[in-house]
Design a protein that fits this description.
The protein is an alpha+beta fold. The chain has 15 helices and 16 strands. The strands form four sheets. The protein has a five-stranded antiparallel sheet with strand order 6-5-9-8-7, with helices on both faces. Strands 11-13-14-16-15 form a five-stranded mixed sheet. A hairpin with a 5-residue loop joins strand 3 and strand 4. Helix 2 packs antiparallel against helix 3, helix 13 crosses helix 14 and helix 14 packs antiparallel against helix 15. The longest helix is centred in the middle third of the chain and has 59 residues.
């Protein structure tokens, strides 16, 4: 029998629909209330999804049931009630299970809450530890001492927990530190080889069996390892900071300009105080610039890339350049670049020195060298003219003098019976003046040849050179000439040494005024030189004449009184200076003179008898 649901049956269905949707709204309201509290947020996320899902499923089932009511015209009322009751029981069972899960989660909430609070405390501690590290003012003992106290406070039982941090042999303990049997340990290690440890102890008694068994949580053990690792890094940072501070003090006190450059684009990564002061920029302004903006030779990507690749290949390089100040002024620098690699990071260290004064001195030196070159050319030209003049004097003027002297001698012989005493004396004076003029011309020629060109020398035994000079002078019998000790062997031209000894000995003989004359020659070592002395007991030389006698044509006695051209000592001075020595005289009027001259030493044996400076002739 087919029938339609009408009257009371329709009211029952509507009642069931109202009950279903009320349950949906009740579950949704409960979920919103729990979600308001943030501490329940993490716990209730799953419950919310389960409750809403169950409610929606229940509502969907009832709605589905209601939607089918038009098609139940052929179903009996009893069958309809049975289906509804079965669906209600099934959904009620599902809601009961969801409610049980919710109760379990609520029961576990205090434990989860405590774990979350402990993790937050650990994170807060690690944050405080990182904030306590200031690289510019890093005090490692203070960090260790503060860490020991802070670490104790974040453990579950801070009143019974004590911490000791030992690093590099120095302990840093928390307040009330006591070592017990219950503890945990973590090692601190650094790349510099220094080491330490963190020790955490829990003060317990005999009744704390549970606490001893599970004294430290897993989170606390993980925290201890994390702190040990971070303290190792802090110790490394402290060492690096100390080195950087020391390095900063050195480079800031340097007169050179120091730059740390990024090789990629040449950006300045660090500069010292000297560079800032010289360039007129602040440190912050320079760190916004590239080295190419300071040194124009490195400006531009192409120029920088080529220069950087060359530096990477060679490792270091020294180059001159021009730096530009903030004001636009420029100055010359010499920069030493060095490629430095630290791990995977590359740097360029540049040390620049202001060479403005050196460049000015080099330009001045170049000007002086050019001026000296022109002067040398003039001197060489004058020397050539002097040499030509000496040859002219020697050949062209000497011949007429020989003729005059010969003519005077002939006249004196041929007309001796016709000349009176006055005429014969005049002819003799004419012949003597011609000889003097001849000797003067010979002296000029000798002077012009001496001291201009240093001829290649050979090893010369000065004992033989001095003996030959003594023989050539042929001193009179009342003058005693001798060499005291041994003279050295020097590298020179033998004829030049003959000239030196012959001129000095002949002067002593020529001016000797004592009835028994004594002339002594000796030598001694004077550092890298041989020092020679030719000493006599003649009339001596006044102080005012000691420099003048070494000039050409200068004599102490009148030229008419003694046959002297005033050239001999000038020739000696030129020869001695040609070989890198010097000459001077020490004398006392009436007591004799000592002529000293030096010559560079060559490799050879030392003298057995050194010279006694200032020793008088006997």
């Amino acid at each position: 029998m087919v029938f339609m649901i009408r009257g009371p049956s329709i009211r029952i269905v509507r009642l069931l629909e109202t009950i279903a949707w009320s349950m949906v709204l009740l579950c949704a309201a409960l979920t919103m209330v729990l979600a308001v509290h943030r501490q329940y947020a993490e716990t209730t996320m799953g419950l919310m999804a389960a409750t809403i899902g169950g409610a929606v499923l229940l509502g969907f089932s009832v709605s589905r049931l209601l939607s089918l009511r038009r098609g139940w015209a052929g179903v009996g009322l009893d069958e309809y009630r049975r289906l509804v009751e079965e669906n209600v029981r099934r959904r009620t069972t599902e809601l009961s299970l969801v409610n049980e899960d919710l109760q379990d989660e609520l029961a576990r909430y205090p434990t989860v809450r405590k774990q979350l609070e402990q993790r937050l405390a650990h994170l807060a501690f690690l944050y405080r530890l990182s904030k306590s590290v200031e690289p510019d003012h890093l005090n490692l003992p203070t960090v260790f001492a503060q860490t020991a106290e802070m670490l104790r406070e974040v453990y579950r039982n801070p009143d019974r927990t004590c911490v000791r941090i030992t690093f590099d042999g120095i302990p840093y303990e928390s307040s009330g530190f006591t070592r017990t049997e219950t503890g945990q340990y973590a090692a601190i290690a650094t790349a510099q080889g220094k080491s330490g440890a963190i020790e955490v102890f829990l003060r317990t008694n005999d009744t704390d069996t549970v606490a001893v068994k599970d004294a430290f949580s897993t989170e606390e053990r993980e925290l201890l390892d994390t702190v040990a690792e971070r303290l190792g890094r802090i110790a490394e940072l402290s060492e690096v900071s100390r080195r950087l501070t020391s390095f900063r003090g050195l480079i800031d006190g340097s007169y050179d300009h120091a730059f740390v450059i990024d090789p990629t684009w040449g950006r300045l990564m660090d500069v010292n105080r000297t560079a800032c002061e010289r360039l007129g920029y602040s440190r912050e302004e320079l760190l916004e610039r590239t080295i190419g903006q300071i040194d124009g030779a490195l400006l531009g990507d192409v120029a920088w890339s080529r220069w950087r690749d060359e530096l990477r290949r060679t490792g270091n390089r020294v180059a001159e350049g021009v730096h530009t100040c903030k004001s636009g002024l420029t100055f010359s620098v010499e920069t030493s670049f060095r490629w430095v690699s630290e791990g995977s990071q590359d740097y360029i260290i540049a040390m620049s020195r202001d060479i403005t004064e050196r460049k000015h001195a080099e330009r001045k030196q170049a000007e002086l060298i050019e001026q000296l070159r022109r002067t040398n050319e003039k001197v060489e030209s004058i020397n050539r003219e002097l040499k030509d003049f000496a040859h002219v004097v020697s050949h062209d003027l000497k011949a007429p003098l020989v003729g005059i002297k010969s003519m005077a001698d002939w006249l004196g012989k041929d007309y001796a019976d016709r000349l009176d005493a006055e005429g014969a004396d005049q002819l003799r004076q004419l012949s003597e003046m011609a000889r003097r003029m001849e000797r003067l011309i010979a002296g000029i020629l000798e002077y012009s040849r001496a001291g201009h060109v240093k001829e290649p020398g050979v090893e010369v035994d000065l004992n033989e050179a001095a003996a030959d000079a003594i023989d050539m002078v042929a001193a009179p019998s009342h003058i005693d000439i001798a060499v005291e000790g041994r003279l050295p062997v020097v590298e020179c031209v033998e004829t030049r040494m003959h000239q030196v000894f012959q001129n000095l000995i002949s002067n002593a003989v020529k001016y000797m005024d004592k009835p028994h004359g004594v002339i002594r020659i000796r030598c001694g070592q004077d550092g890298d030189f041989w020092r020679f002395c030719v000493e006599d007991n003649g009339p001596g030389i006044a102080v005012k004449d000691r420099e003048r006698i070494f000039r050409i044509f200068q004599t102490v006695a009148p030229k008419d009184s003694l046959e002297s051209t005033g050239i001999g000592l000038a020739v000696v001075k030129r020869i001695v200076e040609l070989y890198g020595g010097r000459i001077w005289v020490e004398s006392e009027v009436g007591a004799g003179s000592r002529f000293y001259f030096t010559l560079p030493r060559t490799s050879g044996p030392a003298l057995e008898t050194p010279m006694a400076v200032g020793a008088a002739c006997e």
